[in-house]
Amino acid sequence: MLATAHTFVLEGAMGHLIEVQVDISPGVVGATIVGRPDASLLEARDRVRMAVTHDAPPWPTTRRVTILLAPADLPKRGTHFDLAIALGVKAADGAVPRDELAGTVFLGELGLDGRLRPVGGVLPMVMAAARRGFRRVFVPEPQAREAAMVPGVEVFGVRSLAQVVAQLRGDVVPEAAPVTAPSGRQLLSWRGEDRRDELDMSDLVGMLEAKYAVEVAAAGGHHLLLSGPKGAGKTSLAERIPGILPDLTREEALELTAVRSLAGPLGPVDERWELTTRPPFQAPHHDASKASILGGGSGRVRPGELSRAHCGVLFLDEFPLFRSDVIDGLRQPLESGEIRVVRGEEAAVFPARGMVVLAANPCPCGEYHPVAGKNRCDCAEVARRDYRRKVSGPVTDRIDIVRHVEPARGHDGDRFEARDSSEQVRTRVAAARARQATRYSGSGWRLNSQVPGHELTLHWPLPEVGRRRLDDHLYSGAISSRGAVRIHRLAWTVADLRGLDAPGLDEVETALALRTGDPLPARALTGGVR
Length: 530
Prior knowledge:
Shape: elongated
Distance between the termini: 74 Å
Structural class: alpha/beta
Strand content: 15-25%
């Protein structure tokens, strides 16, 4: 007899439907798994056999069992296929009604005693199942809460194969020992992780232009480069960006939690793995590898820090000290908003639509200053040139906003003036993002930074006087074509912050200054930005 169960396989953050077709027929006694399984799947044959043997009826030992994982040309890896294979065998053997498997997805690793174990990637697989029209899913009990984050799907959290079989047959569900919850590095915590919750924009003295640049970047999701001597406040600014970002929408929160699920099972005892409403902040050390930043690793491809910062902030402090392959690898995701990791026949695509904030000193020692009397740098000119070269060229051409930060002076007038709090700035940013959400409703884009240049020109053009000003800079070679598109996006963000229906010449001038690093027009620092 032939029976079919359903499960999913992940290719990066994308889920693909897998039909587990099981045939039990006369022939040479044995069990065969076909359809490009990896080593862990070949081992599933023994795991599932022992798990089924502990249930009734036991594994069919007098007939041939053939298990096909279709489509056969798609590579498959992982242990989460176990439950679907076991149910396919049960249904083919007549122990479970075959029609009960229709419209249902099975996820979980089986122990030799038939108990279920948690697996990684449950949330993105359930999301993929919902998109394919499945409305029922069986998962290990500790991951039921994770799967239930997807609306419109009935989730059954089970402890053993016997419980699943009883549920499908309509029998009384037997008792089973609780499933051991996943544990690992995500359960570790330390005091420094919530230190940023206490930071506020009102703590910062001076830096009016830099504060405004950060506000514009947050409002439109733009990438930002902060340069300046050490101690100027670059890191302090960057660490306060999450505090001025509005809460994530449910769609964004699901996407972010799905990325985290790809790194391993989400522990139910760890409240940090609940559906979060706050944007993430990732700040890897400059000695981090390419795989840890962009994604990769041995065995299964895992998302890197860039994807973990999806819908949030990735802060790369001391950017010139990062490895050259990391810097070069940022080109494509900065432009497209996704990262594609290709390794042999495996290609994984992860979302990467977060803000990237770079911070760089003017020289290796951080003391170089062009003003006479302030320059305490002892770096050789060739060292300064090589250092600056890493923050120029293709990568920084993909950065929307460039701002030089100077240390606050003791007589800075802002020291004794009222300064906007993070909550006040967040209110303005949220209002600007709401305007963008309305404007791009139904388009698939959420923020100005995500809209392609040709769509901006076609549907949301600049006024004629603003377009001519931009063309003058483009034809003179002051900006590139890519830079012109980013200025166009920035002009819309500036207009959104000001509550305007469309940008004018003043907004274009402000966007030009933000892009080139020139001093901002006086109006940019008025209207609540202090």
